[in-house]
Write a structure and sequence with these properties.
The structure holds 2 protein chains of 2 kinds. Chain A has helices at 3-22, 28-39, 71-82, 135-178, 197-203, 223-236, 281-360, 367-407, 421-436, 456-476, 509-512, 532-542; strands at residues 44-50, 56-60, 67-69, 92-94, 108-117, 120-128, 182-187, 192-195, 238-247, 253-264, 270-279, 417-420, 440-445, 451-454, 483-492, 495-502, 546-551, 557-564. Chain A is α+β, with helices and mostly antiparallel strands. In chain A, 27% of the residues are buried. Chain B has 4 helices and 5 strands. Classes of the chains: A alpha+beta, B alpha/beta. At the A-B interface, helix 6, strand 9, strand 10 and helix 7 of A face helix 3 and helix 4 of B.
């Protein structure tokens, strides 16, 4: 190239650069085409450029507007000549040709690939009719293409990036504004910077300004929950479905499930937290209803079971009570004169024995008399033995009648007075000690307050029955080690609870429901009347309490007695 | 006898959840399960399996206490876990109780209306 040509080329380049520097819009490409057209005396100059996702553009020299081409149109116009231009900035001659749909057919065309990156590329095409493109033209064009190519490429990408950014922004805005979940951001100190309309609605605020600048933890019921969440984000990078309770402006609560991330700068420092919060209040309230229903159901079932047991027991006791009262009454009268007669017989026997003693001391008896005396003594001894057995039988019948009377005994308010359950247990323990001391140790854990209004004598009988039963249960195992009887009292909801636990063999499931039945006993014949626990049950019932027997921990039995602190006297 | 340690799944649980720690203390006729840290949605699901399997091996009449003194966070799933344990405990005739509930967890249980369901076993 000559010096003059160089100067001319440089001046065109300067003009192009100044032009692009002044005009940063896409329109600058049209004027650039005009400059090139003028500089190279071309009849047609066209800049074709496109990117994968962006529009296909053409700027014509002499035109006022940029033209967007459909993809098919672009392919028709450019593809046939573009395939000849595979090397960037390398000038290609072709023609005759016309821009399909634009301009006239020209015999001489020159074109160059400006760039090619994936689906993004650009071409500069020039046509003229007067003369072919000279070598000098080619050099000038190459110099211009080297300037224009990168500028158009960069601007095309910038434009594309801007559009993408705008589109993304619009997309995010749509999500942010339209999301049914709360979306918010806070700065690195967890001060609220943005919150979407759903978030404002959740919490009952009108504008972002109502919350902007407040630390997020001020919205949480427990500030420490928010700190726990942030700690998870800092250490694990994210917190997923973390439940938190937020406070609404009106004082209500919002049960929320939150997922949060942290955005960091290039140095790795957190610059903001971004979170999405879903309102799960309805779900939690549903769960709450299920928990309550399940709990109520199990309580009702338990009460139903207890009530059923009590009803069955009451029914049995009522009929047995009536029967026993009748039997006691009917037996008591003949028993009275039988016992009286028995006592009379005993007195006569005593007298008879005294007379016989006097008679047997008379000296000079014959052998026959001696033999008769010996026979009489033997008969007397047997009569005394029989009487002792009868006495024992009478006493047992009297005890049974007494128990039967006690069983159907009616309490009156006068029988009730202030009674300390702990003291009652202690005195019952003294009474039962003879049964317990050789077989078991006793552990006590008494509550401080066990004062109730009760028929103390009856309750002592209850405790005595249960303690003796516990000792006898342990003894029945004939074990080498000592057993353990644990006595506990506690106060709960205006009731005193007494638990007497033994580590004996326990009560088999099959007979547990029958142990309060009158005359039911597992003891060997003659060792128990089978009325002890029935009476116990009746006494507790009179006190408006309850008695339950449950398996002991691991083994053994627990008698759990509950008595209201102020029972209403039950007329039985 | 309730296995405590590797056989019970405790070690596995505590390794999996760095923010939740469960311990089991077995003493005579008392089982005490301590839950410490944070009982979130995911940990609650595994804790439920773990504690129910311990409960299944517990003979009737035993005291079964869930110690919550060091539980600093509880989710609704955690509350659900406690109510499940309460109901299962009753079904098994266990003396189920909550012990030393952390005030924050207590406030949540109260807010959700279930605090009164639970018998307490608070001690120093």
């Amino acid at each position: 190239m000559h010096e003059n040509s160089n100067a001319s080329t440089n001046s065109i380049i300067v003009e192009l650069c100044m032009h692009y520097a002044k005009d940063s819009s896409e329109q600058a490409n049209i004027v650039a085409s005009d400059i090139i057209k003028k500089a190279l005396s071309a009849d047609e100059v066209a800049l074709f450029y496109r990117s994968g996702s962006g529009p296909n553009r053409v700027s014509f020299a002499g035109s006022n507007h940029l033209i967007s081409l459909e993809r098919e149109r672009w392919e028709d116009a450019v593809a046939p000549v573009a395939q000849k231009m595979s090397n960037p900035y390398h000038l290609t001659h072709f023609g005759p040709w016309k821009l399909p749909g634009f301009g006239d057919s020209r015999p001489y065309w020159a074109g160059a690939l400006l760039w090619q990156t994936g689906d993004s590329n650009g071409y500069l095409l020039m046509g003229r009719s007067a003369k072919d493109w000279s070598r000098e033209d080619a050099l000038v064009l190459k110099a211009l293409v080297e300037v224009v190519g990168p500028i158009v490429e960069i601007r095309n990408h910038e434009e594309e990036a801007k559009k993408e950014a705008t589109e993304n922004l619009q997309r995010f805005e749509a999500i942010f504004l339209g999301s049914p979940d709360m979306i918010y951001s806070t700065d690195h100190r967890d001060r609220i910077t943005e919150i979407n309309p759903a978030g404002l609605a959740f919490l009952g605020y009108d504008t972002t300004e109502d919350l902007a600048g407040k630390t997020f933890e001020t919205l949480a019921l427990n500030a420490s929950d928010r700190q726990n969440l942030l700690d998870r984000v800092r250490t694990e990078g994210v917190a997923i479905n973390y439940e938190i309770i937020l406070m609404k402006r009106d004082g209500g609560h919002l049960f929320a499930s939150e997922s949060t991330i942290a955005r960091k700068n290039s140095k790795g420092h957190i610059i903001e937290y971004i979170g999405i919060i879903r309102d799960i209040t309805r779900r939690v309230e549903d769960e709450q209803r299920i928990w309550t229903a399940n709990h109520d159901l199990i309580e009702v079932n338990e009460k139903l079971k207890q009530t059923q047991e009590i009803l069955v027991q009451q029914e049995k006791l009522a009929s047995i009570g009536q029967l026993s009262a009748g039997i006691a009454h009917e037996i008591n009268n003949p028993l009275g004169y039988l016992k009286s007669n028995h006592n009379t017989v005993l007195r006569y026997l005593d007298k008879l024995q005294a007379l016989f003693q006097e008679e047997s001391h008379i000296p000079g008896e014959s052998d026959q008399e001696i033999a008769t005396h010996a026979k009489i003594r033997k008969i007397l001894d047997e009569l005394f033995e029989i009487s002792r057995e009868s006495e024992e039988g009478f006493n047992r019948i009297i005890k049974i009648i007494k128990d039967l009377k006690s069983f159907s005994h009616e309490s009156s308010p006068e029988d009730y007075s202030s009674y300390d359950v702990n003291e009652g247990l202690e005195s019952s323990l003294v009474m039962a000690w003879n049964e317990i001391k050789y077989v078991a140790d006793v552990e006590k854990n008494y509550s401080a307050h066990t004062l109730i209004n009760a028929n103390g004598g009856e309750l002592n009988q209850v405790f005595l029955n249960v303690l003796v039963n516990a000792a006898q249960a342990i003894q029945s195992e004939k074990r080498k080690d000592r057993g353990l009887i644990r006595i506990e009292t506690s106060e709960e909801e205006q009731q005193i609870i007494i638990k007497i636990t033994d580590d004996g063999p326990g009560i088999p499931d099959g007979i547990r429901s029958r142990i309060f039945d009158p005359f039911f006993t597992t003891k060997e014949a003659g060792k128990g009347t089978g009325l002890g626990l029935s009476i116990t049950h009746g006494i507790i019932e009179k006190h408006r309490g309850s008695i339950r027997v449950i398996p002991g921990p691991g083994k053994g039995t627990v008698f759990c007695i509950t008595i209201p602190i102020t029972p209403t006297v039950v007329q039985t | 006898m309730i296995p405590v340690g590797s056989d019970s799944g405790l070690d596995e649980f505590n390794t999996k959840y760095s923010r939740t720690h469960i311990e089991c203390l077995f003493e005579n006729t008392t089982v005490t399960i301590s839950i410490r840290g944070e009982l979130d949605q995911i940990a609650s699901a595994d804790a439920r399996k773990l504690i129910l399997s311990m409960m299944a091996q517990c003979p009737p009449g035993y005291r079964f206490t869930i110690e919550l003194g060091q539980l600093v966070y509880i989710s609704s799933s955690g509350v659900g876990l406690l109510t499940t344990l309460l109901i299962e405990g009753k079904k098994k005739d266990l003396d189920f109780r909550l012990g030393n509930i952390n005030p924050k967890a207590e406030a949540i249980l109260k807010l959700l209306g279930v605090l009164s369901f639970f018998p307490r076993h608070d001690h120093a």
